[in-house]
Amino acid sequence: MKPLYWKFLLILGAVIVGASLALPKALRKNIELEGAKSSHKSLVAENYQSETFGDTSSISFGFHKVLRSDFLVVQLCAEEGQCPLGTMANPHKDGSGYLLLKSKAVLDNSDIKSAYADFQHQTNIPVVNFALADLGAQKFCAFTTKNIGNPFAVVLGGEILTAPNIHGAICGGTGFIDGNFTMIEAESLAKALNSGMRPISSRVVPKG
């Protein structure tokens, strides 16, 4: 009986030792697997941000003069690339069509000094206030003075955000963008103007 008893104990001991060695391996495998999943999720998140926002410094922003032209000219420019010299056709962000614009911007990224979201003091609706640098303010004053009654387009990343008519000279170097949006959307647009990201539809109103 004794030899059989000791054999049983030896076998039982071997099973316990084997199990104790196998368990850490299983745990290590699970930890490694979870770590790999976590790394994958982080990589996916980084890739998503990269694909969504890209290199924001490369997204152009500008105020452009709107050129009056017939539908065929705009269509040929937009669809075939057959544009009159010094012009381009850009789509409205809301999908309402194209406008023929002067290629050279009146103002571009370098002319924007700052932008921030706030509530308009008269209507209490979210707006985006913007300020132009000194040279930008001078250029915009001269442009709006000469083009009263005509529209200009605010373009970001190739899309027209808004194309308001110029009702008077805008010489103060500041204004606000009113797009009937929420504060979250206004903050998104302010961030876009500051960093070059793609924002939502809006319209520009001079302060004062």
3D architecture notes:
The protein has 208 residues and is of the alpha+beta class. It folds into 2 domains: 1-53; 56-63 and 107-206, Gyrase A, domain 2. It is built from 4 helices and 10 strands; from the N terminus they run αβαβββββαβββαβ. It is globular.
In total, the number of domains comes to 2
By CATH, the architecture of the largest domain is named 2-Layer Sandwich
The overall pLDDT average reads 74
Q: Indicate the overall shape.
A: globular
Low-confidence stretches: 36-58, 197-202
Structural class: alpha+beta
Measured distance between first and last alpha carbons: 106 Å
Helix and strand sequence? HEHEEEEEHEEEHE
Proportion in helices: 40-55%
CATH-defined topology of the largest domain: Gyrase A, domain 2
Beta-strand percent range: 15-25%
* Rounded Rg: 31 Å
Q: Major sheet: order of its strands?
A: 4-1-7-8
